[in-house]
């Protein structure tokens, strides 16, 4: 029977020849004035201080978990804003569904960040010996099954979630959020302390101390009513809150990328892969947050857009509102930087002559009989997570263009340029999802591995000749 072998060399068919891909675009702020206006509108300097104010010096992951929890708390504020909207034409029902789904995914990511965390500041349930403090009206006294000791379950006093649970318009939604917290935090050593059942009787996070809800909710929009008409645009608070949620998650993503790089440098492949999968979920979460713009009233939003002077630059260099966010630009560049870490993960150096050294090493790793064992444990999962993050980043920027087109019109999104202009002539947003693969060596390794198995199966199906 004919035999085949795994080889990085494969004949190139005429129809496989393509034009050399354009170089990757480096995201940068094109208009510093617009970026500054964006930051002042969202009160980002003040919000950044709330993110970065350290309250727990002994907690190494505070800078990562804190902005994620604050994004969750701001989402609770958005629930309140959405359900208290008096406009008869507001999409309250669908927006409530979207916010319920978004909150559940946020809780899922928060739980993933908290798994294995042993340094978070916690309030032990049994610390008060069953005595209900006068100043904590939201606390509950109950007894664990099979135990004679009474415990006090502390709930946050400052968070909006307990208030949403007591409001008839949002009590059902708040109950679903609490059950989502109870479900997702099962794998963690503590619970969040937001009024969830906490059936396991675990310690609860000192939520108010970490998240600082009072300081967080004090950062509301400053835009005054229109001077001539006195009109108060309800979409202003929605736009403001959406982007505060977005920026908070971008802060968490930046901290996660720092931890990811340090774990890769330490060759902790399994932990790095876990961080990479969380990063992928954050990029998907960012796309879900941007989708909330679709539920804004067209007339009110475009009126607000004109008032805030949100528009694309005429030359297309700063074609999208998202590129005014320095945090998004940093996260996009830092995420694509991980492609430079592939040789370190695989354990080879890049061939200075442009040879397929990294590709061959990746093929051996993918095809090895003892893959995933010894020093290679976690490597394949990490490489898979790299490419999953790439797909999530491309989806985010492609989906963002579609959201802009749906909300503002295709002229604002410059939608036709990417279809008819060469790659080097497209705007930065188009280049983000049209640029070459971030990981060409991994892409080529899988291409040749697939070709190997096609040849192998074809050879195996040919009957052997008789002697």
TrEMBL record:
Domain Hs1pro-1 C-terminal: 185-454
Domain Nematode resistance protein-like HSPRO1 N-terminal as annotated: residue spans: 12-182
Gene3D superfamilies, per the entry: 1.20.58.480
Entry's Gene Ontology molecular function annotations: heme binding; metal ion binding
One Pfam family matching this protein: Hs1pro-1_N
One BP term from GO: defense response
Protein name: Hs1pro-1 C-terminal domain-containing protein
Species, as recorded: Triticum aestivum (Wheat)
